[in-house]
Amino acid sequence: MIIHSIQEASVNCPYCGEVISVLLDGSVEEQEYIEDCQVCCRPIVLHVQATIDGACTVEVRDENEA
Ligand SMILES: [Zn+2]
């Protein structure tokens, strides 16, 4: 059974370095989306991968990275 769960995670903004909290959707295996930093308002690219038990790992990078 797939667990459909929204989880909260903390990531470091690649621009200003502040820790911000984001919501991750554990029901999708792999996804990439943009969330604006809550501190500097610049767009952070979030790459989220969910494991089979619904846990999420998240990587962040700035929008200008290739
Ligand atoms: Zn920031």
Question: Mind explaining what this structure looks like?
Answer:
It is built from no helices and five strands. It has 66 residues and is mainly β. It has a three-stranded antiparallel sheet with strand order 3-4-5, with no helix packed on it. The chain is globular. The mean pLDDT is 89. Bound molecules: zinc ion (ZN). Residues 13, 15-16, 18, 37, 39-40, 42 line the site of zinc ion.
Which class of secondary structure composition applies to the elements? mainly beta
Largest sheet: 3 strands, antiparallel
* Element order: H for helix, E for strand: EEEEE
Principal-axes shape call: globular
Arithmetic mean pLDDT: 89
Keywords:
mainly beta; three-stranded antiparallel sheet; 0% helix; binds zinc ion
Topology:
Elements lengths: L5 E7 L6 E7 L4 E7 L6 E8 L5 E7 L4
Antiparallel strand pairs: 1-2, 3-4, 4-5
The site of zinc ion has 8 residues, from loops.
Care to give the gist of this entry?
By secondary structure, this protein is an all-beta fold. It is built from no helices and five strands. 0% of the residues lie in helices and 55% in strands.
